[in-house]
TrEMBL record:
Family to which this protein belongs: Belongs to the JHDM1 histone demethylase family.
Protein name: JmjC domain-containing histone demethylation protein 1
Basic and acidic residues: compositionally biased ranges: 10-38, 472-485
Phylogenetic lineage: Eukaryota, Fungi, Dikarya, Basidiomycota, Agaricomycotina
Cited function: Histone demethylase that specifically demethylates 'Lys-36' of histone H3, thereby playing a central role in histone code.
Residue ranges of domain JmjC in the record: 215-401
One annotated Gene Ontology cellular component of this protein: nucleus
Cofactor: Fe(2+)
Domain PHD-type: 31-88
């Protein structure tokens, strides 16, 4: 593809372009036409001197871009072929340069309307054509989301409503939200004047969904003020961050957002504000003209969003972040599917929501959405991470990593913010502050993520052999805020242990499995019984009688309890390789290895003890280690005494429980099943 534009200056191509020839004589330029020019197509001299041309990479014929471009952007074209050459050879396919947020593979032009109707897309109107076709086909489900009053959104709502921040919420009037916005009547030229007309701004070209460089707010305001019929392209601004500007001082997020926002409550106050480097994602100004479209996306790191229509209107299309839908989005994003497939065809349902002036929408963690702008619109909003759905936030971060989203478009200082949140949460757990089961489940996901970061920093033998492990290990260390956290490994592991302890502390069942903390109570959910519990039931009547379990019996809650214990000990122990729990599904060995561990009465910490070979026929002994047949396990050990008291009919009941808790974990290495080993040995 060869192109010629007056604003490019000197043409790099040695071959003379039509612009050079036009410069010799304006009279000759006035008569110059391309093979696709219409007979009645008449242009003045100024327009011709600014004309854009493109050359077919096959037949080398030059064309006016306005005659053959169908409204798309010449800047993003990589290889271009005229229609006769495309018809003559199917290999002649138009491709694009790699967009800023995508991988470097060449892509076909996005053309969902062609897929749906079997016809070429209608230039800048192709998104509207597609939406009308999908709407007519009944592809959009009715809006099922709650409409709430601003005063109903609070920390108590999030704590007590199991659906809070799991589904979008629409607030029709801003009253009661505790939110401040610029005065009614604010215009885009006003935004440019207040923030600064020379301020650079990222502008998206809607037809290609790629960035258009070189825009300032002054130029953008001029474009926005142009009558719709005179706009050359449909453009959109979705990422003007206005913190530390006079306009930002006029915007205050909703009160409940400020109560939950990690940046607001966990990032040190002395490290925020003008001149400081911190995650500036709370205050955005969005400006879109009529017919603007933002394709399917998830806000960075799965952050939640508050979104207020200051003037105009928006139409949202939502996809629920189920595991299946997120997997479909992951396959679609950054792949060839993104250029040829409507994501809504790959998921279970798409919900359509229409917002008008004065409406506010809260979009929860991980919701996949696309946005259409029916009229010129001005929006204020912001992003925030919180402690009520950390697992999904981390899942979206994994998707960003797998689809290679550039760091520029990821949540800034995400891991460092996680460390600040973990530090504050651990302090609260030590102070015996109350946490809901939902938050405890969320904090467990955070603890596991940070433990994985710690293992990167510690650089186990397995991690050292991984590709690019050195760079990842340095990045993990650099992400720790050393101003607040002096011992990151200890913090991450203690947080994990204390979350587990807090999740069990209010439970009356001493023999509950030490599994994951449940995210919420689910009616009709099932719990697996442990092997120990099954064995106890089988031995009922032998010796001491097992306690009778009564259906639907809930014991009286303890009035007070306290846990006293020493510091968490973290050690490494070598044990026989076959003492490691086998892969799930090998039920024949389940009871054997569990029973062996239950009967073992050894100490985690040993000194001056020799390892010895073991008789293969002897009863399991965890301490016995055969040379060259052992693995090192990571052990967390905590000795504690728990005392709790509650009222009884005639007085009180006091329990004193002394226990040692051990958490054994092995390196993440490939574990083969018996069948795989048998096949391997046979070959």
């Amino acid at each position: 593809m060869r192109s010629s534009k007056n604003r490019r200056g000197k043409e790099k191509d040695a071959e003379a372009s039509p612009d050079v020839e036009k410069s010799e004589s304006s009279e000759k330029a006035d008569k110059e036409r391309c093979p696709q020019c219409k007979e009645d197509d008449d242009q003045n001299e100024t327009a011709l001197l600014k004309e854009d041309w493109i050359r077919c990479d096959s037949c080398k014929t030059w064309f006016h871009w306005r005659c053959v471009g169908d409204g798309s952007d010449l800047e993003v074209i990589d290889k271009w072929f005229c229609k006769p050459c495309q018809a003559a050879d199917p290999r002649h396919t138009i491709t694009l340069k790699p967009p800023a947020r995508k991988s470097s593979r060449k892509r076909l032009t996005r053309d969902y309307a062609s897929l749906h109707n079997g016809a070429p897309a209608a230039g800048v109107d192709k998104w509207l054509v597609l939406l009308h076709a999908k709407d007519a086909a009944g592809a959009f489900s009715r809006d099922p989301f709650r409409h709430m009053r601003g005063s109903e959104l609070s920390r108590e709502w999030v704590d007590n409503d199991p659906t809070a921040l799991f589904e979008p919420v629409l607030i029709e009037e801003p009253d009661g939200l505790g939110m401040s916005m610029p005065p009614v009547g604010l215009t885009v030229p006003d935004v440019a004047r207040i923030v600064g007309e020379n301020t650079p701004v990222e502008v998206m070209d809607v037809a290609t969904q790629s960035n258009t460089p070189g825009y300032t707010l002054g130029r953008w305001a001029e474009y926005f003020s142009t009558p719709p019929s005179a706009r050359d392209r449909i453009r959109n601004v979705i990422s003007l961050e206005i913190s530390d500007t006079p306009l930002g001082a006029q915007v205050v997020p909703p009160a409940f957002v400020r109560e939950l926002d990690w940046v607001e409550i966990f990032w040190p106050a002395n490290k925020k504000g003008p001149g400081q480097v911190y995650p500036k994602v709370q205050l955005y100004c969005l400006m879109g003209v009529a017919k603007a479209w933002t394709d399917w996306h998830i806000d960075f790191a799965g952050s939640s969003v508050y979104y207020h229509i200051h003037s105009g209107a928006k139409t949202f299309y939502f996809i629920r972040p189920t595991p299946v839908n997120l997997a479909a989005y992951e396959r679609w994003s950054g792949s060839d599917l993104q250029t040829s497939t409507w994501l809504g065809d790959l998921v279970d349902a798409v919900y359509k929501v229409e917002l008008t002036e004065g409406n506010t929408m809260v979009i929860p963690t991980g919701w996949i959405h696309a946005v259409y702008t029916p009229v010129d619109t001005l929006v204020f909003g912001g992003n925030f991470l919180h402690s009520y759905n950390i697992a999904t936030q981390l899942r979206v971060r994994e998707i960003e990593s797998s689809t290679r989203v550039p760091k520029k478009f990821q949540f800034p200082f995400f891991t460092k913010l996680c460390w600040y949140a973990a530090d504050a949460s651990l302090r609260a757990l030590k102070a015996h502050e109350d946490f809901t089961p939902r938050v405890l489940a969320s904090l467990m996901a955070l603890a596991r993520f940070l433990v994985s970061e710690v293992r990167l920093m510690e650089g186990s033998e397995h991690a050292k052999s991984a590709p690019r492990s050195g760079g990842r290990r340095k990045e993990a260390k650099d992400n720790v805020p050393t101003d607040r956290i002096k011992d990151a490994p200890a913090l991450a592991r203690e947080l994990r242990w204390r979350v587990r302890l807090a999740a069990r502390g209010a439970s009356d069942a001493e023999d509950d499995e030490d599994g994951d903390v449940p995210a919420r109570n689910v009616v009709g959910s099932k719990r697996k019984r442990s092997v120990a519990a099954s064995n106890a039931g089988a031995k009922k009547g032998e010796g001491e009688e097992a306690e009778e379990r009564v259906r639907n019996f809930v014991p009286k809650r303890w009035g007070a309890y306290a846990v006293r214990g020493g510091e968490l000990a973290h050690v490494r122990r070598r044990v026989r390789a076959d003492r490691r729990p086998p892969p799930e599904g090998e039920s024949g060995e389940e009871a054997v290895w569990m029973q062996g561990w239950m009967e073992w009465d050894g100490a985690v910490i040993r000194s001056g003890e020799e390892t010895k070979d073991e008789d293969p026929d002897a009863q399991m002994d965890v301490d016995s280690v055969v040379k060259d047949d052992s693995e090192e396990a990571e052990v967390e050990r905590k000795h504690e005494v728990m005392v709790r008291v509650r009222r009884t009919a005639r007085g009180l009941e006091r329990q004193r429980v002394e226990r040692t808790i051990e958490l054994w974990e092995w390196p993440e290495v490939e574990v083969k099943t018996k069948m795989e080993l048998t096949i391997e040995n046979a070959s």
